[in-house]
Amino acid sequence: MFYNVNMNGVKISYSNTTHFYKPENVKLGSMIHIWHYTIIDGTAQVSIGDGCQIGAWVGIFTHSSHQAIRLYGYHFNEFTDAQKKAYLMEPVNIGAFTAIGPHCVVLPGSHIGKGCILKPHTVIPMGANIPDFSIVEGEGKIVGDTRSIDQYFLDTDDDFKKWYNEWNAKS
Question: Can you list the domains of the chain with their CATH numbers?
Answer without folding.
Answer: 2-146 (2.160.10.10)
